[in-house]
Amino acid sequence: MALKLHRRCVSCQCIAMRDNFWRVVRVPIAQADIHRTDGNPQQFQIQLDDGMGRSAYLCKKLECLQIAQKKNRLGRSLRTQIPSEIFDILKSRLSSTNSQKYDNIFVN
Fold first, then answer.
1. 8 A C-beta contact, residue 21 and residue 60
2. CA-CA distance, 58 to 16, in Å (whole number)?
3. What is the DSSP string of 3-61?
4. How far apart are CA 64 and CA 11, in angstroms?
5. What is d(CA 76, CA 42) in angstroms, rounded to the nearest whole number?
6. What angle (nearest 5°) sits at the alpha carbon of residue 52, between those of residues 8 and 97?
7. Which of 20, 40, 64, 104 would bridge 11 by S-S if both were Cys, CB 3.0 to 4.6 A apart?
8. Strand partners of residue 58
9. DSSP state of 43
10. pLDDT at residue 51 tops 60
């Protein structure tokens, strides 16, 4: 029996298959000096779709994207600040997938 991978959207809380979501990952930045004891917080970077680290999932809908940005749902889930560039990239992905849907509808 195959394992079904369900995830929950951080904005609308809907549960669906993992393929229906965008994955946003918090990945630690590799540091040259691993033995730091000065108490500075570890730095993170945000990646989309791949990487090993703390993850959050977001529906591929404009409403969920707007709620996540307005209420800082991704930032709270990943426990770090989310750069605005990430939201811009996701908005561009959303517009490109919508145009591909309509292109497929009008093909005869």
1. yes
2. 11
3. PP-EEEBTTT--EEEGGGEEEEEEEEPP-S-TT--S-PPPPEEEEES--SSEEEEEESS
4. 5
5. 17
6. 55
7. 64
8. 22
9. P
10. yes
Output the CA torsion sign for 58, 63, 69, 75.
Answer: negative
Residue 7 amino acid letter: R
| CA–CA dist 74, 65 (Å, integer) | 10
pTM comes to: 0.78
1-49 pLDDT, tens digit per residue, is: 566 789 999 999 999 999 999 999 999 987 655 555 555 566 889 999 9
Cα 4 to Cα 67: distance, rounded to the nearest angstrom:
27
Environment class of 21 (CB within 10 Å of its CB; exposed 0-12, middle 13-18, buried 19+): buried
Count of C-beta atoms within a 10 Å radius of residue 82:
20
As given in the structure block, the two tokens for residue 51 are: 């990487």
